[in-house]
Amino acid sequence: MSVKVAVNGFGTIGKRVAEAVLKQDDMTLVGVTKTKPDYLAMIASRMGSLYVPEDRVEKFQKAGIEVQGTLKDLLEKVDLVVDATPGGVGKEYKPLYEKFGVKAIFQGGEKHEVAGFSFSTLCNYEEAEGKQFARVVSCNTTGLLRLICALRNHFKVKSVRATIIRRGADPAETKKGPINAIVPNPVTLPSHHGVDVRTVLPDLDVQTVAAVVPTTIMHSHVLNVRFEEPVTREDVLKVLEEAPRILVIPSELSGVKDTAKIIELARDVGRKRYDLYELAIYEESVSVEGDELFLMQAVHQESIVTPENVDAIRALTGLVSKEESLKKTDSTLGIVR
Amino acid sequence: MSVKVAVNGFGTIGKRVAEAVLKQDDMTLVGVTKTKPDYLAMIASRMGSLYVPEDRVEKFQKAGIEVQGTLKDLLEKVDLVVDATPGGVGKEYKPLYEKFGVKAIFQGGEKHEVAGFSFSTLCNYEEAEGKQFARVVSCNTTGLLRLICALRNHFKVKSVRATIIRRGADPAETKKGPINAIVPNPVTLPSHHGVDVRTVLPDLDVQTVAAVVPTTIMHSHVLNVRFEEPVTREDVLKVLEEAPRILVIPSELSGVKDTAKIIELARDVGRKRYDLYELAIYEESVSVEGDELFLMQAVHQESIVTPENVDAIRALTGLVSKEESLKKTDSTLGIVR
Amino acid sequence: MSVKVAVNGFGTIGKRVAEAVLKQDDMTLVGVTKTKPDYLAMIASRMGSLYVPEDRVEKFQKAGIEVQGTLKDLLEKVDLVVDATPGGVGKEYKPLYEKFGVKAIFQGGEKHEVAGFSFSTLCNYEEAEGKQFARVVSCNTTGLLRLICALRNHFKVKSVRATIIRRGADPAETKKGPINAIVPNPVTLPSHHGVDVRTVLPDLDVQTVAAVVPTTIMHSHVLNVRFEEPVTREDVLKVLEEAPRILVIPSELSGVKDTAKIIELARDVGRKRYDLYELAIYEESVSVEGDELFLMQAVHQESIVTPENVDAIRALTGLVSKEESLKKTDSTLGIVR
Amino acid sequence: MSVKVAVNGFGTIGKRVAEAVLKQDDMTLVGVTKTKPDYLAMIASRMGSLYVPEDRVEKFQKAGIEVQGTLKDLLEKVDLVVDATPGGVGKEYKPLYEKFGVKAIFQGGEKHEVAGFSFSTLCNYEEAEGKQFARVVSCNTTGLLRLICALRNHFKVKSVRATIIRRGADPAETKKGPINAIVPNPVTLPSHHGVDVRTVLPDLDVQTVAAVVPTTIMHSHVLNVRFEEPVTREDVLKVLEEAPRILVIPSELSGVKDTAKIIELARDVGRKRYDLYELAIYEESVSVEGDELFLMQAVHQESIVTPENVDAIRALTGLVSKEESLKKTDSTLGIVR
Ligand SMILES: NC(=O)c1ccc[n+]([C@@H]2O[C@H](COP(=O)([O-])OP(=O)(O)OC[C@H]3O[C@@H](n4cnc5c(N)ncnc54)[C@H](O)[C@@H]3O)[C@@H](O)[C@H]2O)c1
Ligand SMILES: NC(=O)c1ccc[n+]([C@@H]2O[C@H](COP(=O)([O-])OP(=O)(O)OC[C@H]3O[C@@H](n4cnc5c(N)ncnc54)[C@H](O)[C@@H]3O)[C@@H](O)[C@H]2O)c1
Ligand SMILES: NC(=O)c1ccc[n+]([C@@H]2O[C@H](COP(=O)([O-])OP(=O)(O)OC[C@H]3O[C@@H](n4cnc5c(N)ncnc54)[C@H](O)[C@@H]3O)[C@@H](O)[C@H]2O)c1
Ligand SMILES: NC(=O)c1ccc[n+]([C@@H]2O[C@H](COP(=O)([O-])OP(=O)(O)OC[C@H]3O[C@@H](n4cnc5c(N)ncnc54)[C@H](O)[C@@H]3O)[C@@H](O)[C@H]2O)c1
To answer: pLDDT band at A48, cuts 50/70/90?
Structure first.
């Protein structure tokens, strides 16, 4: 059986999820939707099939881009839609998804309540089964949860304090700043990222602070984790190195000492769009004092949620187990362990 | 009695300290030294008197800039030298200062050992008395110590965890990056800033992590302080508002919600060079949960150490008490409470 | 006689013009208007008097900021209003200004047609007399016109080709980008800046191209001017050095070799907000080959139009001659020759 | 016959040229050299074979990276070396290349005199034959020459005036600035780029001005070309669209309106490292008035010289004709027409 999938919103996230779906042998990409007739629409019309909101059909025809039909036509043909529309827009589409009786996966720009269930593969894959809706948490939350759930598998985590240094805009979003400032985001503490982590791990003592800085390529996190009892650096490193979707980078050995060099590495190994699905942790930053762990990690905001979206499709449709999904997703995306 | 002061190194820090000394009624600026005959040298030659290293005399003459003499000529005339040469250069000058029997104040770019005594007005003014050398700690450490010592005056501080988001370069340093990256600095944790705090407060449990980002105007700190017992937000805010050299900014009321707007405020109120001697704390960021405090603060790296340098001159020469020095420095520099 | 002046819109341009008006002995600042009750409003309420649009009165009262009255109250008291509202908003106010029979000066964000007359002191001061409306051209156009009219006073200018490298946002505009891109603006050539120059010099053969880059402090222009006959570098330099409101910077001598160092110079000499009213030209860049001139100049976008606004007040109200206005404006603003 | 090629210096340029050589059926990559044992060295040791300067052998062994031999060992095995060491270093290696009797291709960071012959495929491929040394001109010069030689094939070019808006650093060069400035480079006009163009087209009337800005991804050029006689926009566009290695981008249609979106396009179509070998010209920017052409183009500095390096290997060794080389290079690199 193959799940028939639509992707609504073929932007930064949508285009990646659509291409990832194409690589899976247990799902079929039936179509994607776009609202603007730009070059991505041309690519989309080549890739799967291109569908557009009803009121845009004419606009695309004028631009000479062939469309297969409307969003409604598309929803009729699929089992599940991955909603990758801009933050807050997914909520507007929920009634339509309900009407067409399709399962839907929302992204981190939507509130938890829109789906009622927030998803992160390593933390709660199994809980998704049977649900109609799921929300793949945001890039920052995904990064935090990869780390935290990996640690919680082996240690008793008492509390997590994290500073999130956010990229100001995605690379092609040239209208967004800041150009020369550090912007508390929000200025009222603690930030909502901790709250977001708790949509998946409700019992966790986690507090976060976030600031936006003038960079486009990656977020960075400074982590301060306390355990119930002392741990050793060796044990922590071992856990991180064996955890799925985490890349521990030996900075001194490799020369990879900042977010730009992490991206350069992804370019050099030939990742399409330099996508880094893995959470990157600087090995040298992993430091333990008693029951306290410090580390710095970097998140490629554009791509880190791609594998979780693919897993979420399987989790919602009950196709396979978590281990099986992890294996399929990671091997098709070229994620190394 | 008036202390006769020289400033060796008339750059970012030196020019500010020299101008601040000019405003004090208990010190005299005898001269400053420069190594390059640029426009600052012309300004310097107008301000106080301009002295240069011996091997540069000719260079300045060629550039048509009048000099009063050499560094050695200058050292003969003064009681104390503020060394504001680039990091690591001050150490080279120490033997000369010893030879001339002058007191010397080094900056944060020098190791603690160079002076053997690290200074921060609110924490250890009194300990300076009788010493020949002092080192005013770096801009980031000064910012951290202003906060910590203010808190310690009223609460029992158990531990401090801080993330330092550093500006990449001073505004006019156009050769330094990064342009588009977040750079762990250092990548090995914890960072040296915590160590630096302990040169002044040896018993403090403090750990820091630092990353450099592409901005020039201010550093930002994310603070997580734990106390021995629960505190209230109101108490903390009251302490901060009453502490010297701390500016608590009501962000919602004023619209001042990021480092760029803090600087705009300094420009609008007419601060020369938009210098902000005060540690700026976003009022809304001050958040307390039980015994734990979170807040975000911003440090104007170019100017925050200016008042501490002026105080250090008084502290080393035993002119007046800490309270008296604070009062004199702050009123002459226009620091508001 | 003293012209009674209002400033509508107390933002980047408005606050500077208001402060400049305060310094003139032949004009009186009756009041300024603000729409948001932020810290600038508090400063405004201290400076002149603060007026607000009718529908905002309550909002300011709630924020505890005293207002003197509404915009209409203000317009009744003045002879002339300087409109410094955001681009395109001034047009909406024109009927109101007409209704109240006040003269009005618009800014470069408005179309030429709004005022019907575009103003630049050195080019067409005299033409303003008797008019009700004038528009002070934009920062980039002001910079271009300062240069061109200075040259036209002494040489026959055949054509002007200019590349405008624009700052992406003003320093405190932290929401605007780009963060990491060069953005043709517009992508269709030639750009509107040449058209704007011709609102003042209709007969000029001028073509411009503009691109936006990730910097906040200054615009830069690359000029290629052709004359009817050969000129010498010496003659051009002499003209530029003697022209009003142009600062020819000897880069090698002073070390001032980029926009950041120009701003550092303005900070060091104590300009409020580091405002540089002068057009800055790098002396070394001035290069002549036969009938062709190349040079690079830098424009401090926030402040360059301040003197032209002050002059425009005098020009519209027929107070004094151009030479007299130039002298008054420049000496009160501290513009050096 | 297959030319045996070495690449000395496996950095930004070297790694690209080495990979491009691997794709050619008439050349063999014998080995590359690296000086630092970082992750690129590991990749290199997998790709071709890794050679290192004699004094580094031990260092690489310590880092656990296997090396095949020394640079001298490598030079003994090859016919030709592509020198991609940092600017100015290639010159130091020239005597060694002479000693080993190998042909050598230098990069734009070397002076013209080092090779005595500067190369750009479309302009002077045939002149390379029989020479021992060639220098592939810099990325900016390559971009300018692609345009100029394409135009010269069809029109009589009278003069070229160009403003070069340079990226401050390559993406992974995180130590280089500027962060917030526009830096004339050089401040003395005209810039050396025009001189560099004339190493290939000695008779051309070309003048350039360059400024560095805070971006990492692409350079941009503003071109003002004059012809001996009037041309039409249609004719120019046709020539550009048919010229090799030029990509004319319809900005309005595609939404690709700045350098960031050009790079996004390269990412989306799956170019490794988002390399854009083509010179990108914004279609809408192409504007003609009489005998004068304006346009804006963008240069991907990291990759634009890759095809020219491959061609230069063939040109120096007399393998095939220019047309044949263009065809082979472009089809293997996936350059579209
Ligand atoms: N960009 C990131 O870094 C990132 C990371 C993780 C999660 N997310 C989340 O993913 C979601 C999508 O973000 P993105 O960055 O891909 O946005 P985007 O702007 O790149 O893409 C959104 C796409 O939706 C389309 N669209 C816009 N309005 C639409 C409408 N009314 N109906 C249908 N399609 C519409 C747009 O054409 C575009 O193709 C958001 O919830 C966001 O918070 C983004
Ligand atoms: N810039 C900051 O943000 C900042 C903040 C706090 C502390 N500091 C510390 O202050 C010190 C000075 O830093 P800065 O930013 O003012 O540097 P700077 O480069 O701006 O100024 C240094 C000055 O020293 C002069 N100089 C250079 N070599 C010299 C020599 N051999 N002898 C005499 N003078 C010489 C230079 O001409 C220049 O005027 C450093 O220790 C630095 O770590 C800097
Ligand atoms: N900033 C520059 O670099 C610059 C340079 C030259 C010319 N200009 C032009 O000057 C004008 C003002 O630009 P700015 O940069 O000062 O803008 P700004 O946004 O800094 O200030 C605009 C001010 O107008 C107020 N305002 C907003 N809407 C209003 C309304 N409906 N009624 C009354 N007041 C309102 C705002 O509160 C603000 O105080 C524009 O035409 C702009 O194009 C700007
Ligand atoms: N980066 C660009 O945008 C660009 C574009 C066109 C041309 N170029 C030119 O290409 C050349 C290489 O530049 P790059 O950007 O690739 O530099 P790079 O710094 O990225 O790479 C240089 C390589 O040479 C190695 N190296 C350094 N010193 C060496 C030595 N003494 N002996 C042997 N190898 C040594 C380094 O390890 C590195 O691998 C320069 O001439 C440059 O001007 C660069």
So the answer is: low
**Any idea which of B168-172, C178-182, D189-193 has the lowest mean pLDDT?**
D189-193
How many CA atoms lie less than 13 Å away from B308 in the CB half-sphere? 35
On whether both D204 and D230 belong to a single domain, the answer is yes
Whichever domain contains A55, its CATH number is 3.40.50.720
Any atom of ligand 1 within 6 Å of the Cβ of A9: yes
> What's the pLDDT at B1?
72
Distance from the C170 Cα atom to the nearest Cα atom in chain A, whole angstroms: 9
Q: Do A177 and A280 reside in the same domain of the chain?
A: yes
My answer on whether A148 and A295 are in the same domain is yes
| Tally of structural domains, chain C | 2
Work out the average pLDDT over C86-92: 98
Radius of gyration for chain A, computed over Cα atoms and rounded to the nearest angstrom: 20
> How far is Cα A244 from Cα C47, in angstroms, rounded to an integer?
62
Distance CA C90, CA C97 (A): 10
The per-residue pLDDT for range B270-323, each reduced to its tens digit, is: 999 999 999 999 999 999 999 999 999 999 999 999 999 999 999 999 879 999
Residue D35 CA: which ligand 4 atom is closest? 37
- Interior angle at CA A302, CA A297 and CA A308, nearest 5: 80
The DSSP element (H or E) to which B299 belongs, if any, is strand B292-299
Identify whether residues A130 and A147 lie together within a single domain. Answer: no
Residues C25 and C114 in one domain: yes
Strand-pairing partners, residue D210, are D164
Largest CA distance in chain A: 66
Phi, psi of B115, deg, nearest 5: -95, -25
C293 shares a domain with C144: yes
Closest ligand 1 atom number to CA of residue A14: 16
Q: How far is CA C128 from CA A189, C319, C324, in A?
A: 54, 11, 15
What do you get for the CA distance between the two ends of chain A, in Å?
29
Chain B residues at the D interface, defined by Cβ less than 8 Å, are: 168-169, 171, 173-181, 183, 214-216
DSSP string, B197-231: HHTTSTT--EEEEEEEES-SS-EEEEEEEEESS--
* Cβ partners under 8 Å of residue C142, min gap 6: C108, C120, C136, C279, C299, C304, C305, C308
ipTM exceeding 0.95?
yes
Mark whether B181 and B320 lie in a shared domain.
no
